[in-house]
Design brief:
The protein is built from two helices and ten strands; from the N terminus they run H-E-E-E-E-E-E-E-E-E-E-H. It has 151 residues and is of the alpha+beta class. It has one domain: PCu(A)C copper chaperone (Immunoglobulin-like, Sandwich). Strands 1, 2, 3, 4, 5, 6, 7, 8, 9 and 10 form a ten-stranded mixed beta sheet that branches. The chain is globular, with a radius of gyration of 18 Å. The chain starts with a helix and ends with a helix. It comes from Thalassotalea nanhaiensis. InterPro entries: LpqE-like (IPR007410), Lxx211020-like (IPR058248), PCuAC_sf (IPR036182). Keywords: Signal. This is Copper chaperone PCu(A)C.
């Protein structure tokens, strides 16, 4: 009887952790091509949380950089400033868009320049112990400018 009870509890935990993975979805991700002579880039995406609990993005890692930070732009005394944030909360059944002039990801200390039409891999770490690894396409600076000017 104890074995059956423990097995049921264990399977319930596995199923609930598996369902957490399905509740976080990443879309519209891209990273900017590096400007020649620099070792910094920025990444953007939409993070959706389809669960009934808030989830917090706590860290981002990648094999191409030892320093990846979450940042946001804020207005201070009529000036736009960028500052690092420790985490980003995605409310239950909601999404957060990481975009220019808002929340975004800064990738520092790139070992090699990022070139258009390639991709990199990032792992997003959440407070529910969920790790989501995604492929992130590198968009050229010219591609980004075209997207902005289309109406």
């Amino acid at each position: 009887m104890k074995f059956r009870f423990c097995t049921t509890i264990f399977l319930s935990l596995i199923i609930s952790f598996t369902s957490l993975a399905a509740d976080i979805n990443i879309s519209e991700q891209y990273v900017r091509e590096t400007i020649p002579g620099t070792s910094i880039s920025s990444a953007y995406m939409k993070i959706g949380n389809q669960s009934n609990q808030p989830v917090t993005l706590t860290n981002i890692t990648s094999s191409i950089s030892d320093r990846i930070e979450m940042h946001e732009h804020i207005m201070t005394e009529d000036m736009m400033k960028m500052q690092q944030v420790d985490s980003i909360v995605i409310k239950a059944n909601d999404s957060v868009v990481l975009q220019p002039h808002g929340y975004h990801i800064m990738v520092f200390n790139l070992e090699q320049p990022l070139q258009a039409d390639t991709e990199m891999t990032m792992t997003l770490h959440f407070d529910n112990k969920e790790n989501v690894t995604i492929a992130v396409p590198v968009q050229g600076l010219k591609q980004l400018n075209k997207k902005r000017h289309q109406h």
